[in-house]
Prior knowledge:
Elements (H helix, E strand, L loop, with lengths): L18 E6 L3 H12 L4 E5 L5 H6 L1 H18 L14 H11 L6 H10 L2 E4 L1 E4 L4 E5 L5 E12 L3 E3 L15 H6 L6 E5 L3 H12 L3 E6 L10 H13 L3 E4 L3 E6 L5 E5 L4 E4 L1 E4 L3 E3 L33 E3 L10 H20 L15 H4 L2 E4 L4 E6 L2 H6 L4 E7 L4 H6 L6 E7 L4 E9 L6 H9 L4 H4 L12 H10 L1
Parallel strand pairs: 1-2, 1-6, 2-3, 6-16, 8-9, 8-14, 9-10
Antiparallel strand pairs: 4-5, 5-6, 7-15, 11-12, 12-13, 17-18, 18-21, 19-20, 20-21
Helix pairs in contact: 1-9, 3-4, 3-7
Nicotinamide-adenine-dinucleotide binds next to helix 7 and strand 17.
Enzyme class: oxidoreductase
Cofactor: FAD
Organism: Kitasatospora phosalacinea
Amino acid sequence: xxxxxxxxxxxxxxxxxxxxxxxxxxxxxxxxxxxxxxxxxxxxxxxxxxxxxxxxxxxxxxxxxxxxxxxxxxxxxxxxxxxxxxxxxxxxxxxxxxxxxxxxxxxxxxxxxxxxxxxxxxxxxxxxxxxxxxxxxxxxxxxxxxxxxxxxxxxxxxxxxxxxxxxxxxxxxxxxxxxxxxxxxxxxxxxxxxxxxxxxxxxxxxxxxxxxxxxxxxxxxxxxxxxxxxxxxxxxxxxxxxxxxxxxxxxxxxxxxxxxxxxxxxxxxxxxxxxxxxxxxxxxxxxxxxxxxxxxxxxxxxxxxxxxxxxxxxxxxxxxxxxxxxxxxxxxxxxxxxxxxxxxxxxxxxxxxxxxxxxxxxxxxxxxxxxxxxxxxxxxxxxxxxxxxxxxxxxxxxxxxxxxxxxxxxxxxxxxxxxxxxxxxxxxxxxxxxxxxxxxxxxxxxxxxxxxxxxxxxxxxxxxxxxxxxxxxxxxxxxxxxxxxxxx
Length: 488
Ligand SMILES: Cc1cc2nc3c(=O)[nH]c(=O)nc-3n(C[C@H](O)[C@H](O)[C@H](O)COP(=O)(O)OP(=O)(O)OC[C@H]3O[C@@H](n4cnc5c(N)ncnc54)[C@H](O)[C@@H]3O)c2cc1C
Ligand SMILES: NC(=O)c1ccc[n+]([C@@H]2O[C@H](COP(=O)([O-])OP(=O)(O)OC[C@H]3O[C@@H](n4cnc5c(N)ncnc54)[C@H](O)[C@@H]3O)[C@@H](O)[C@H]2O)c1
């Protein structure tokens, strides 16, 4: 099969369908969905308007983590007497940015295009739009237009864009979104960050480590609203200790960029904050405004709701699927890829008339989206959480108990870093005696998270977990301490 601009593998044959499946959007979700559907026997076209690999590869996960890792490595060395003395300088910003550029593949997608070809998926470059049932038109880079018809299904995997507030002056102020925050070529002296979510926190952490004077303007009363409250508090403490000016309850009322390049942010308390760049990390909106949603009875610009097999619930006929960020189930790369695997296989099974497994945790349904979504916030300290917070579990009507343990009291943590500060919480479903949520906050807790994900997804009874003995002296001994605390 071909790649760029390839014609359909089944073009004109068997009823005139071009492909069994047309996927719009070649981010991590679209790639995985296309791959699983093709592995299930379908011919697949993938339509991509920008770079194959999507936001994650070029302007989100990869470059942001590449910007964060050197600062984390340096901080890690500084936390241990003996190695602390060996750290005599600051980060080499040019080297950090160069490494970031490499992790963003220098904003070229050749590698991912080669992978698509090797996987047997046809790439059609251009902007795709739905055009009624099982039809997609593509505005191609050369100015032409192609129509693709799908025999079985169309999958929308178009992701999100940054959502900017409607503020006076914002449109002309050339503010940063997450794209500029992850691809900037130099370190701003003064950086204002608006928002208190993950993008705001990670960006503040990264650019502060690179030397920017960072002011974090948070509208609400805490950071990371969707995590346990202590996580927001410990991250806020960490940012302040690193020299970030964290301002809670700070609302921006207007923005403008002066002729000398300075950005001025007017705040609701009457003060004005000057900066060299201002990031608005104020959430995401679905990339569906120019997608032809009206041609299938959906509202342009809306999120696309789906059932657990990925079918758009408001579109009759069961031929339209939506996966990844665009369905608003969980805005994370790994959940989008998971949906891609599950939904792609379900599409192929339906097409072949094979039975689906629709029971909770069955092969054909993305059950984990509801109860077991893991996430790591790469701040200092790191926040690693899976499943429900205490509040979410209570709101869901579960009879639960939170079990907390100070991570610094674990021998492995004390060895890992001097004055280790952090906390773990397990949320226990008292009726079933299983875990429904776990949060770790502390230096280098990210790699602990999958143990918690396995326990939550596996619904491992606490009596059995008691026999999962953590190695001594590792940070993972926190598992033992949590269970001991629960048993009393
Ligand atoms: C700064 C930042 C850091 C992040 N870090 C992490 C992280 O560390 N871990 C994590 O799990 N998640 C992270 N995320 C979230 C993650 O980036 C998204 O969840 C993920 O990219 C979603 O994948 P997707 O394939 O659904 O959408 P996207 O990655 O957005 O891909 C969608 C693709 O569709 C294409 N497209 C859109 N419309 C059309 C159209 N009409 N026609 C053709 N093509 C179209 C786009 O060009 C794009 O390539 C981060 C997000 C941000 C903003
Ligand atoms: N490490 C990771 O896993 C990672 C990293 C980055 C992003 N992501 C994902 O990407 C998604 C987007 O992240 P995000 O941080 O952009 O969004 P978010 O929804 O997590 O946070 C948005 C923040 O902006 C604030 N806000 C919204 N409108 C505002 C306004 N008008 N004025 C001031 N503040 C306003 C909100 O109160 C919130 O604090 C999230 O779902 C996140 O999980 C994940």
